[in-house]
């Protein structure tokens, strides 16, 4: 599946993601800047924050209470569409998923 990342400068990067990987891993494996992912996907750092396009919000995995709590500590403002990209597993139904990278992860 393709995942589209809109960078802070407006550039859109379309990357081929492997099913079973997370959106964070797809970003890191393809050199998408702005996804720091300090904890490596353990849901501990909140530096993999992304804004999910509203039309995809209902299609991705639901947010855990733990993720919800961690999102209170993001470097860029939390919005209704905020998620931790390491907590979004990719499957074939998410082909074309659009996320925006926030201005900063700190
Ligand atoms: Fe650390 Fe997602 S990579 S919370």
TrEMBL record:
Residues 1-105 form the 2Fe-2S ferredoxin-type domain. The keyword Membrane does not apply. Signal peptide: none annotated. CDD domains: fer2. GO terms for molecular function: 2 iron, 2 sulfur cluster binding; electron transfer activity; metal ion binding. GO terms for biological process: P450-containing electron transport chain. GO terms for cellular component: cytosol. Keywords: 2Fe-2S, Iron, Iron-sulfur, Metal-binding. InterPro entries: 2Fe-2S_ferredoxin-like_sf, 2Fe-2S_ferredoxin-type, Adrenodoxin-like, Adrenodoxin_Fe-S_BS, Beta-grasp_dom_sf. PANTHER family: FERREDOXIN-2, MITOCHONDRIAL, FERREDOXIN/ADRENODOXIN. This is (2Fe-2S)-binding protein.
């Amino acid at each position: 599946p393709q995942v589209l990342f809109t960078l802070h400068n407006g550039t859109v990067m379309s990357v081929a993601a492997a099913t079973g990987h997370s959106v964070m891993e797809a970003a890191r494996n393809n050199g998408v800047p702005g996804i720091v992912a300090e904890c490596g996907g353990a849901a501990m750092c909140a530096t993999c924050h992304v804004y999910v396009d509203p039309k995809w919000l209902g299609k991705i995995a639901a947010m855990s209470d733990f993720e919800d709590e961690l999102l209170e500590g993001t470097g860029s403002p939390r919005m209704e569409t905020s998620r931790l990209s390491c907590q979004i597993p990719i499957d074939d139904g998410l082909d074309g998923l659009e996320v925006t990278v926030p201005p900063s992860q700190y």
